[in-house]
Amino acid sequence: MKKIAIPALAALTLLASCNFLKKEPLGSVTPDNFFKNGDDAEAALTASYDALQGTGAYGQDLNVMGEMPSDNCTSTNGDVNAMDKIIWTPTTSQVGNVYTQAYQGINRANVVLKYVPTITMDTARRSQILGEARFIRALNYFNLGRVYGGVPLRTAPTESGLAADVNLARATTDQVYDQVVADLQRAAIQMPIKNTNRATRNSANALLARVQLTRRNWAAAQAAAAKVLASNITLGSFDALYPAENRGAESLFEIQYAGSADGGNILPDLVLPSPLATYSFTKFNIPTAELIAYADTVNDARWKFTSIVSAASGKVIGRSHVSYIDGKPGPGGNGNDVGRFVYKWRGIGNNFSSADNTYVLRYAEVLLAYAEAANEQTGPTQDVLDKLNLVRQRAGLAALTLASSQALSKQAMRNEIDRQRRLELAFEGERWFDLLRYARHNQAEAGAHVTSALDIIAQQRSGARDANYLVFPLPQTEINTNPLVQQNPGY
Description:
By secondary structure, the protein is an alpha+beta fold. The chain folds into three domains: 1-199 and 453-491, Serine Threonine Protein Phosphatase 5, Tetratricopeptide repeat; 214-256 and 357-429, Serine Threonine Protein Phosphatase 5, Tetratricopeptide repeat (Alpha Horseshoe), CATH 1.25.40; 267-356, no CATH class. The protein contains 19 helices and eight strands. It has helices at 9-15, 31-34, 38-50, 61-67, 81-85, 93-115, 123-148, 163-166, 173-190, 201-215, 218-229, 267-271, 289-294, 363-378, 382-394, 410-425, 431-444, 453-460, 476-481; strands at 73-74, 251-255, 286-287, 307-310, 316-320, 324-327, 339-342, 358-362. The strands form three sheets. It has a four-stranded antiparallel beta sheet, with no helix packed on it. It has a two-stranded antiparallel sheet with strand order 1-3. The longest helix is centred in the N-terminal third of the chain and has 26 residues, at 123-148. Residues 1-28 have low confidence and may be disordered.
């Protein structure tokens, strides 16, 4: 984690190992001889944050899962082909990596929650640390729930390789989400409004709004979002948000990267053309032609042309349209660097160790969450429009009124909110998860959303609207080693 001291991190990594290989921890480092003071508590918490950086989390695979199956992105790179074509299996790399990385983060957070309460230290800071650990555990469990459905629910650290400790049956999806909600509600009480580079009360409530939208708990989603909106954060320039670098109050939680070999962000190298990226190859998350046609690339400040992008040598790389770049071969580049590329990470690749951060939660999403939840309860109102218009007007679009075509019915407003979510959050790892929840909303209320994950699944799978693909399979390694779990249907 950038700008956060990491004392004794190696020791904490050992303590917080996931035991997926069922190895005993080394005897030289134990909870009894480690958790002695506030520095040890901080190190344990930092290890929990560190797990969010990994390639199985926000460093690569969560973003790939959240974009590549969707209508936002495509690629011919074989490493993401299964995600793009919706042909994933229990042995697909992303399926295993996301699962393992999330449990690593959960186990590290569980270590904090078990042992930090026993440390003699500043009581206010101890409470904050416990709140941050609950937020991290909740974020990991929420991602597991929306990726796999019900999963084993571990709320204490796994500290041995014994079968009784390692193997748990799957909880239901609702039980997982119940734990997420409980953790976030408590974390919001324990964490402060401001805490540089770390999760805060606004982080917890913003994530809680996302969770409740996923569950279609509209009143609870609106209430959680309202707590964040009470901060009265001002939206600035959309272009200035990228790359994410702790630039202002709009950022509610981002993954920090130092840009060093052991703390760099891989994702920019995977999506940018060379020489912004370290070298040229077929990139991940290529914006689809359909998305570019869907966006207003003339007037929308999130998508219109703004500037020429040049390499350090001065040679032109392409044209920035804020969210994407129209690339052309730069120095050392080739055909892999021609076309459209994601441009929300903009730093030099730095040998797959970029210093660019990654957004997890932004204020604009909370505005849209409030608008969606309120509209589902009341239909279009001035309150709904006030929140939606903040996002539209920041993008340079005209404010809507209750007489606008987008506000003539609940359905028309749904369509507009869906549109603004897609255009605002493109490439940030949320589109597929939005399409999944739209599919479940359509199952509960036919026709609620124009496009859902089932439409994309049908396009990729010869017309078959296979609902089994609304969740990913559990990794085959978990099936092989844990006799108490069963695979998701269809896999």
